[in-house]
Amino acid sequence: MRHCEPTQLTFWLATTRACSFELTLQDAKGLQVASEQLRYEQIRVGEHCYIQLLHFALDTPLTTDTYVHYDLLDEAGQGLCTHIPELCYEGDTLPGFMLKSRVDNLLHGSCRKPHHPSSDGLLEVDKLLADKRHDAQHRPALMLFSGDQVYVDDVAGPTLWAIHQVIQKLGLYTEEFAGATVSTSEELYSSPHCYYIREQLLPKNKANEKLVERFFGGARKPIFTSVGAHNHLICLAEVIAMYLLVWSDTCWKWVDLDAGRARIPDKFKPRYDKENLTVKEFVLGLSKVRRTLAHIPTYMIFDDHDITDDWNLTRGWEESAYGHPFSRRIIGNALIGYLLCQGWGNKPQCFDPLLEALHASVKAGELEQQDNLINTLLDWQEWHYCLATSPKIIVLDTRTHRWRSESSPAKPSGLMDWESLSDLQQELIGEPAVILVSPAPIFGVKLIEAVQRIFTFFGKALMVDAENWMAHPGAANVILNIFRHHKTPPHFVILSGDVHYSFVYDITLRFRKHSPKILQVTASGIKNCFPAGLLRWFDRINLWLYGSRSPLNFLTKRRRMLIKRRQPQGQRGVLYNNSGIGQVILSDEYEHIQARVISKDKTVEFK
């Protein structure tokens, strides 16, 4: 389930053949409603693979705060549970949802890496819905993913092997490359460098030695700038298969993970075996993940790993990445995948201008005009969106509206430029309260930001992923001025992720009697963690140096703001390091807003 409101419902699915669907709805009174107003988009991406986005307009608005069962009937009149019996919760014969009149309870998170050795936070959502899905008071209204839903740039060997088996099974389209050492996707799959050494596949002739030097010499990391990029996805078919494998267990039924070991170079076989155990455990929960996503409206926004690590971090990075046809294609393919499998469902009507280019690129059984489509997507300015909920939700694009440094190509870009921040301020005016989704925390850990600033001073921003709001003076000053503006909403909840640990801040303005109240809830990751020992030291030193009463705070850009940290229950520090899903329970009284992280072993409240 994607964007939903009382007069429209949106569903995303993938099928092995062209289909047409009829939506049926059944509320608590047993009323059957069939919608004939269908906005239907079907994109063929392979011989046996169609990406479907179904956008239904309803003649009669749905009653809010009431559980509604639904079904999608194919041409033969067969419904979802005929094809997917495990899609329903115990006691139900159909999947269902609830549209709440107010966003009083929501789930959010980021950073879900399949091969990270931790539990999958989406399984905790499944448990919550199994228990509370009919309960209007306690069930979440929606779920927000704030970035890194997939790791295109950091793929386990077993996952890449599974991707290639799915490509073959579904006949996903092949493509040709320019400026690469492999000329087609078929050559890529058969290359001896396909697994664990893909950095060898980038072109290294004299014409682009500068490209290679800027990508790898400055960053001191392989392929692009990701430390785990030895299996970086390259072609569009790989990206599409990755999405099919992280949302559902269906395609895994065609995969033999153990058979992939024969393709792996000997020195990487131990790593493959270790990753294989983690990936197999991840797969065991995917039927419940699919069930979860079928029962709650879900919204998404990209961060860097959805495309590639450090995406648009600096002006120099952009000049290198977009100046060569092969690197531009790799980034563009990931962006096409995001459009088809994530962005499209947030606000379907907003993407009408892209549909013509999309249909022109994928037709007649093969990819055509792919570079034209990529050029269109790279120029697209509407990835961000707002939801007319109560309170209003504003989701920021902090990746493609960058405020680029004019003084040095190596300095970090601002996360949003002046024009985008001005538009944001207009969206805020007149709102009594706002939920603001920023993939990166607006108010981060000051010690870590100081370390990033030191590396940036020496021209090594790529080495420490110096992506924070305070890294660029222009963007930092404008976002802080927005919070200080007299027309700013009196109540903010900021949701963020990215950093692989969780923390909660209460923020007010110093020296101002009637300050807006800002609660920032950072929940990361859904299936990822920060190195535990290192984070404990960062936590301790940060508290010593930058406690709420520390005079060092007056040396930072946030000196006119008072930041108080909420403490995770049962923990000495303030940074919580465990995979899970964030939950915020809103209240009209700011002091009563609850923030927690639900993990496999426990639920931790931030007090």
UniProtKB/TrEMBL annotation:
Coiled coil: none annotated. InterPro entries: Metallo-depent_PP-like, PhoD-like_MPP, PhoD-like_sf. Gene3D superfamilies: PhoD-like phosphatase (3.60.21.70). It comes from the Bacteria. PANTHER family: METALLOPHOSPHATASE BINDING DOMAIN PROTEIN, PHOD-LIKE PHOSPHATASE METALLOPHOSPHATASE DOMAIN-CONTAINING PROTEIN. It comes from Bowmanella yangjiangensis. This is Alkaline phosphatase family protein. CDD domains: MPP_PhoD.
